[in-house]
Every structure is written in structure tokens, then in C-alpha cells.
Design goal:
Elements (H helix, E strand, L loop, with lengths): L43 H13 L4 H22 L15 H4 L11 H4 L11 H15 L1 H8 L19 H13 L2 H9 L2 H7 L5 H4 L6 H13 L17 H12 L21 H36 L1 H19 L1 E2 L2 E2 L4 H53 L1
Antiparallel strand pairs: 1-2
GO molecular function: Hsp70 protein binding; ribosome binding
InterPro entries: DnaJ_domain, DnaJ_domain_CS, J_dom_sf, ZUO1-like_ZHD, Zuotin/DnaJC2
GO cellular component, one term: cytosol
């Protein structure tokens, strides 16, 4: 076993000529106070907190921190009442269910971004300012640092003060960031609005021909909702409304003329398939881009055909069309007999024949236009069906070739 040896070392005395070096002029250290300590002035928030700590909280820092937090909340509530002009625009306060909070940021294309930001009640009608406010509230509520601090386990160690001991998962915070990135960008927001999951669900409940022909079918209630649903995609604004049972002939014709020439900005880029991760092949990228382009065109054709089919269905069930045709028939008969509501109208035989011929030509032209519109709709529907068949054949061939 090793033995411990003690060595006596003699430290020489300091020479009498030695003087303590003074601090250089460039030093940031101030010279020591003559009395060896500094005087604490009884002013300022630090001194007030010192008094609170010693007099009211028995030098318990945790108790003082709770008191200061409660005081800050009280002052914030007073400022909120004193400044009613600060308005959050009524957004970002919706309840968050477990399904929303457990979203996976990797599956970002499947998210309902309006629901993530608490804008489900506004959706496509939300303004940029409302989106900004909703994002701000969500960020303040779900920021990882704040959540970690609120749920951090207590620690008595002074060395761990202020250190985040919580391994909080910030997945939902990433979903909030992605939602704001999409909805604050006009182009990305249009792409998302085109395939809004709520709108897709509503499309499943569109009226069928069988429902339209039923006895208890409410034409104006049903089709007003249908056309309001699709009016969001119109490039031309404002969109004429369906009207009511007493709408004039000009209003009815203007409505159907607008929808038969409906110009939609709806697109389907959001549904594009991504190139396989880790693939640097240009051929793969070209093939994916070509396939996405074909799919977008197919979906666009189907959407146009669907809108045209709804317009045809509405026209066939519109009770005003029957009334207008009956009024035109009565007007023609009245003119034929030379009788009007104000009294007999005396016209020559040539004038009556000319008017009769003109009315017949107008009626024939209108019927031809309606027939052409129906034929065009049928043709578009057939083209969409053929395109779908062709796409399925191409996909089948590609799968067999692979």
C-alpha cells in the first residue's frame, strides 16, 4: 500500500518593493469600492421584489414567482378591458378535438387547414387579416417552448433553472406553420380551396334526377344552395342568383346564360402525385409530371361536365320555364286574335302574319339553342367518360408493362 508523504514547501515573502499593478485604461473592470461593498438603493422594481420576497414570501422564490404571474394576468385583464379596440376578428377560438391535435405533419396534403387554424366557420370566405390573426393565436397557444414551460417538471436545482426538461412533441405546431404557409399564399390557397374537404363532402349530396322529380322536392331551396356552392369558383363576379318564382323572363334567361357559359378557375394541382423520394431520375420526373398533367385535365373535364349536368337538371325542373312558356303562348294567341288587355288592337292581315312569323322564328331559334345546349352537354359528358376510360386503359397498360 502506498504511503503518504508530506512535503514542507516554504513560500518566500513578497519583496518590500512590490506594488499592486493598477488596472489598465482599456480594462472594462471598475476599481473596487473603497468600503468593500456597494450600497443598495431603496428604489426600483428590483428593491420592491426584494421587499416582497423577504416580507410576504419568506424568501420563497416559487411563491414570489406565482404572485408576479398572477399580477401580470391581472394587469393584462385590465388592459384588455381598457383597450376594447384590440379585436381578434372572432377567429382562432374553435374547439380542438383529439383528431386535429394528433395530425401528422408528414401527411400535410390530407389536412384541413381551415380547421387547423380554427377557421372552419369561415373557410373560403376568411380574409387575409383573419387568417393572420388566427395563426397568431394558434402560435401563441401551441408554441413548443410555451407548452414545454407550462408542463415542465419542477426542479430544485439552481443549475437546471430555465432549462427545458420536457420532451414535448411539436408536431401540431408544424401543422399550424404549414397551414399558414398555404392559406397566406393566394395561389396555394386556390389550389387547396379547389379540393376543400368540406366542399368535396357537399358534392356527394348533390340532387339526383330521381330526387328532382319527386313530389316534395323544393326546387329553389335545393338549387339555390347548389349554385351558391359552385359560385365560389367563378372568374366573373358577382354571380347572378337563382331568383324566385316571380322572376322575370330576362332574369331567368340571364341566369341560365351565365351558367351555360360558366368560366371556372378551379384546378386540381393539389392532388398531384409527388416524385418518389430519393429519385434523381429525370425520366421518373417527366413521367410523373406528364401523368399529373393528364389527371388534372381529366378532372377538369369531369368538373365542367358535372356543372353542365346540374344546369341541365335545374332547367328541366324549373317551374318558371313552364310559366314563361305559357305566358308566351297566351301572348301569341292574344296577338293572333287581335286582343290585348287594354282593348282590341286593329292590325292589318300582313302585320299579323309578320308578327306570327317572327314569334315562330324566335320560338324555333330558342328550341334549337336549347337542343344544341343539351347536345353539347351530352357530348361533353361522353367525352369525359371516354377520357376516363382511356386513362384507366393507359394506367392498366402501364401497370402490366411494369
Amino acid at each position: 500500500m502506498a504511503a503518504i508523504q508530506t512535503v514542507n514547501v516554504a513560500i518566500p515573502a513578497v519583496p518590500s518593493s512590490y506594488t499592486t499593478p493598477s488596472a489598465p485604461s482599456t480594462s472594462r473592470l471598475s476599481p473596487p469600492h473603497p468600503s468593500g461593498h456597494r450600497t443598495l438603493l431603496p428604489v426600483g422594481p428590483a428593491y420592491v421584489n426584494h421587499l416582497r420576497l423577504s416580507l410576504h414570501h419568506a424568501h420563497n422564490f416559487s411563491s414570489l414567482d406565482k404572485h408576479l404571474e398572477a399580477e401580470r394576468e391581472r394587469l393584462a385583464a385590465i388592459n384588455a378591458v381598457a383597450n376594447p379596440e384590440v379585436d381578434d376578428l372572432g377567429v382562432g377560438s374553435e374547439d380542438e378535438d383529439e383528431e386535429v391535435l394528433s395530425l401528422d405533419p408528414k401527411e400535410w396534403k390530407k389536412h384541413d387547414y381551415y380547421k387547423v387554424l380554427g377557421l372552419s366557420h369561415l373557410r373560403h370566405r376568411a380574409t387575409p387579416e383573419q387568417i393572420k390573426w388566427a395563426n397568431r393565436k394558434k402560435v401563441l397557444k401551441h408554441h413548443p417552448d410555451k407548452k414545454a414551460a407550462s408542463a415542465a417538471p419542477p426542479s430544485d436545482s439552481a443549475f437546471l433553472a430555465g432549462v427545458n426538461l420536457n420532451t414535448n412533441d411539436d408536431a401540431f405546431f408544424k401543422c399550424i406553420a404549414k397551414a399558414y404557409e398555404v392559406l397566406s399564399n393566394p395561389e396555394k390557397r386556390r389550389q387547396f380551396d379547389s379540393v376543400d374537404p368540406t366542399f368535396i363532402d357537399m358534392e356527394e349530396d348533390l340532387p339526383s334526377e330521381k330526387e328532382v322529380k319527386s313530389k316534395n322536392f323544393d326546387f329553389f331551396k335545393t338549387f339555390t344552395h347548389v349554385f351558391d356552392l359552385y359560385s365560389r369558383f367563378s372568374k366573373a363576379q358577382p354571380v347572378p342568383g337563382l331568383g324566385h318564382i316571380d322572376s322575370t323572363k330576362e332574369e331567368v334567361e340571364g341566369f341560365y346564360d351565365f351558367w351555360y357559359n360558366f368560366d371556372s378557375w378551379r384546378s386540381f394541382e393539389w392532388l398531384d402525385k409527388e416524385v418518389n423520394e430519393g429519385s434523381d431520375s429525370r425520366d421518373d420526373k417527366r413521367y410523373t409530371e406528364k401523368k399529373n398533367k393528364t389527371e388534372r385535365a381529366r378532372r377538369k373535364k369531369e368538373d365542367i361536365a358535372k356543372v353542365r349536368g346540374l344546369v341541365d337538371l335545374a332547367l328541366s325542373a324549373d317551374p318558371r320555364i313552364k310559366r314563361i312558356k305559357q305566358q308566351e303562348k297566351e301572348a301569341r294567341e292574344a296577338k293572333k286574335k287581335g286582343v290585348s288587355k287594354t282593348g282590341p288592337v286593329k292590325k292589318s292581315k300582313a302585320e299579323e302574319e309578320a308578327e306570327k312569323k317572327k314569334l315562330e322564328e324566335e320560338a324555333r331559334a330558342k328550341e334549337e339553342a336549347e337542343a344544341a345546349a343539351r347536345a353539347e352537354a351530352k357530348k361533353a359528358k361522353a367525352a369525359a367518360a371516354n377520357a376516363a376510360k382511356k386513362a384507366r386503359r393507359q394506367q392498366r397498360a402501364a401497370e402490366e408493362g411494369a
